Amino acid sequence: MHILGIDTSTMTGSIAVISNDRLLAEYSVNTKTTHAERLIPSIDVVLRAASLTVWDLDGIAVSSGPGSFTGLRIGMTTARSLAYSIQKPLVGVSSLDALAAQYLYCSLLVCPVLDARKKEVYSALYRNTGSRVQRLSGYRAIAPELLVKDIQEPVLFLGDGVVPYGDRLQSLLGEMALFADPAHLLPRASLVAALGRERLVAGDIDDYFSLTPTYIRKSDAEIHWDNAHSPRKQPRPASSSME
């Protein structure tokens, strides 16, 4: 089973192809070009490296978020269009699940953190159950100061949120805060593909048209629109006293 994995949840784009549980090719790009400019060429590079065409694919797995609003939209739109055009099944995979899956055999509590801006991170808590990494909490956008309130034991942080918030997490948790090496700071498309394959084998596929990114919170554009169109409270008329 050949599965194409796509991750555009961060500034770094990652594309991979797996065959069952074997990685055939993986390609990551972290340049000033946008996902819109490099995603299709990157897919072509990976397929050529694996000596495959899109018609050889048995399914497509795409990171569904949370993460970069623009990146997720581009990745999701591309995956939906490609899957529909070749009539192959499509599945969405959480970017946080894909991050945590890098530490399948870790005995520590695992906490992926993606930079959500606005002094928050996208995060969830995970633990190794022996055969898979189990999510223990919901996906959320949360300030580091609130995140650590749920942590009472040594924890391994990974993800690009470690760069801006690592020092803060260290100061809040002290020796309980451990950090993954730089090679594991970003989601990998190969793990998006691997987690997607599990869903495909189980027959748990998504609809081409209803699959949408998991944003967790509203974008700035949505917030501005809501503020502009929300009913304004009318000032109360001044009460008059009878003479």
Automatic annotation (TrEMBL):
Keywords from the named record: Transferase
Every Gcp-like domain range: 32-225
GO CC annotation: cytosol
Domain of life: Bacteria
CDD domains for this protein: ASKHA_NBD_TsaB (cd24032)
Family matches, as NCBIfam families: T6A_YeaZ
Name this polypeptide is given: tRNA (Adenosine(37)-N6)-threonylcarbamoyltransferase complex dimerization subunit type 1 TsaB
Organism: candidate division KSB3 bacterium
